[in-house]
């Protein structure tokens, strides 16, 4: 479904599960189509001011190749990241170190469409891929709104999360 702002309300593609057959590689995959060129979306993925509108506030380091960076999410939780792949403006991959969770890897792929860009998040090595799929679903909605020039309020981030998680768990 397309909103008035030109972004899809629901992911173009979504899956959770265990595609490799081993528990260690449980994966969440969520995509959204955005009416913007890849360079605009890339900027939103790596620019600290942009990250703060859809994922978390950069509180340490710089989101780029180098020693790593940290993000502060809601409720004061911090995650640490190191860039593993930097292919501007098509592919970004990071380590994902979140408190009380095993280290995982998240990748962002940008695919040019006839009108806009498909943004796909693939998050691997998860204990609870349905939970992450629901979270990435919401984060991609916030990313699309930011790229459209209309940041969404953080106090509404968790609205509908439980329903999304249940829907993703049903597909696992």
Short description:
Belongs to the AHA1 family. The protein has 172 residues and is α+β, with helices and mostly antiparallel strands. It contains four helices and nine strands; from the N terminus they run E-E-H-H-E-E-E-E-E-E-E-H-H.
At CATH level 2, the architecture is 2-Layer Sandwich
Overall radius of gyration:
15 Å
Q: What portion of the residues fall into strands of 2 or more residues?
A: 25-35%
Strand order of the largest sheet: 1-2-9-8-7-6
**Structural class by secondary-structure content:** alpha+beta
Mean pLDDT: 88
Helix content range: 25-40%
Oligomer: single chain
- The SSE order reads EEHHEEEEEEEHH
DSSP helix count? 4
What's the number of extended β-strand segments? 9
- In whole angstroms, how far apart are the ends? 23 Å
Q: Name the overall outline.
A: globular
- Under CATH, the homologous superfamily reads START domain
CATH class: Alpha Beta
In terms of per-residue confidence, which ranges show pLDDT below 50 for 5 or more consecutive residues? 1-12, 18-24
CATH-defined fold name: Alpha-D-Glucose-1,6-Bisphosphate, Chain A, domain 4
- Tally of separate domains: 1
Give a quick account of the main beta sheet: strands, pairing sense, barrel closure. Answer: 6 strands, antiparallel
Biased composition (Polar residues): 1-10
Pfam families: AHSA1
Domain Activator of Hsp90 ATPase homologue 1/2-like C-terminal: 36-147
InterPro entries: ASHA1/2-like_C, START-like_dom_sf
């Amino acid at each position: 479904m397309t909103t008035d702002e030109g972004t899809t309300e629901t992911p173009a593609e979504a899956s959770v599960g265990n595609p490799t057959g081993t528990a260690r590689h449980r994966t969440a995959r969520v995509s959204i189509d955005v009416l913007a060129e890849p360079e605009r979306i890339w900027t939103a993925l790596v620019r600290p001011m942009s990250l703060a509108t859809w994922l978390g506030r950069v509180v340490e380091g710089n989101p780029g190749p180098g020693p790593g960076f940290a993000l502060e999410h809601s409720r004061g939780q911090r995650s640490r990241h190191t860039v593993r792949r930097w292919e501007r403006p098509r592919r970004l991959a990071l380590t994902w170190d979140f408190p009380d969770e095993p280290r995982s890897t998240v990748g962002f792929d940008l695919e040019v469409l006839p009108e806009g860009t498909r943004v796909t998040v693939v998050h691997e090595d998860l204990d609870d891929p349905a939970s992450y799929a629901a979270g990435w679903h919401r984060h991609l909605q916030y990313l699309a709104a930011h790229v459209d020039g209309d940041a969404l309020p953080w106090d509404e981030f968790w609205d509908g999360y439980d329903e999304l998680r249940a829907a993703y768990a049903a597909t696992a």
